[in-house]
Every structure is written in structure tokens, then in C-alpha cells.
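We close this part of the discussion by returning to an individual protein. The amino acid sequence and the C-alpha cells for this protein are reproduced below:
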Amino acid sequence: MKQSEREAFEKYFQIEEMKRKIQDTLSRIQNILTLEKGKIYLAFSGGKDSLVMMDLVMRVSQDVPVVHFTYGDLYLPQVIENEINQIYLFMKEKRKHRGGYIVFRGNEDVKFYKELGGKFIPKLRQLGYEAVFLGFREEESSKRKRKVKNVKEMFSQRVYFPIYDWSAIEIWAYIVGNGLPYLSHYDRYSKYENILNVRLSTLFDLPVSRRTDRIVYPHFWNVI
């Protein structure tokens, strides 16, 4: 992240609008937790949005379990997965989290969503979890906007989008303002595009990022 960007995010973090957004979201999360009565978990991808969501949820309750679904080495390099685990450990210490960290590793030969709905979600339901916090934002894409507005259930579990109305600027302002650790992936990609536009996805998945993926992770590209 450029120093000028960091300074801009630090200033944005101090404005009243940002402070109201944080308080409104904390209240939203508290209402959801009251409604679900401990039957909800948090899906943590490792990306900037789920990072902010995780910190906000942990500020309200230290007992919500964090679940990470890993796609396997053919989709994200192990170095990224290692960073994701380290970020959780940092957040666990920072927010005194005691809800647990569950990692589901998918089979690289099986479509991820097939395993998600057919294997992982049923296991979570067996543990008593019937709902999930997801870090989707309307601003990300028209598809995400439709999903946030219309989807109330996925894979037979209730879904909540506590940061649905956050902008990328607000996400980064929160990260910088709170000193949260984020994936080095974002700094690598910000050399080639505005950091506000950098997303974490399975590598070579999004057509718009394939060229940059090959530049940032050349050895990984050669392997696949």
C-alpha cells in the first residue's frame, strides 16, 4: 500500500460518517446474534471484506466460530493459505476470540460448491450451526448486489451480510485505522492496479485478473 493511500485511509477513518457506519454495523451484528442464539458461524475467506467482518463480529462476541474453506493448492498457493491462518491467530489474540477456528479442505478434483453444500455445510449443521455471516458487499458487483438483496438462505442455512453496504474505501479505512493485518496479496497487486479494485479470488479465475496473476505468481502459473 502506498503511503499516500495509507494516509488517506487514516483520515477517512476519523470522519463522523465512518464512525456511524461502524456503530450501525455493530448494532446490526448484535441484533443478528440475538436472533440466532448461538447457532451462527462466520465464514472467513482471508480477503479484506471477511477480515473486516470478522473483526466487527469479534468486537460484539468472542464466541462465534470462524470457518475457513480452503480450495486446495490448485486454486490458491499455500503461501496465501499460511498467511490466512496467521491472520486468524493475530485476530484471536487481539480480540480474545474463544469460538474456535475450523478449516475445511476441499478435494481439488471436486467442484468446490458441490463439496460445500454436500459435505461441509451438513457437518456444520450437525454441530448445531444453522446460519452464517458472509462478507459480501453490494458494491462488488451487480451479481453480489442481487444476492445480498434477495438471498436469505444458501445450502439450507440462513445467511446474513453484515457489511453489505460498506464501500471499498470504508473497508480499507477500517483495516488501516484498526491496524489489522491483511494479505500481502493486496500489496502485490496494488503495483498494477488501484488497491480499491484488488480482490482475492481463486487464481486465474477472474478473466480481468488473469494477466496480473501471471505476473504476480509466475512460478504458480508454470506449475498449473
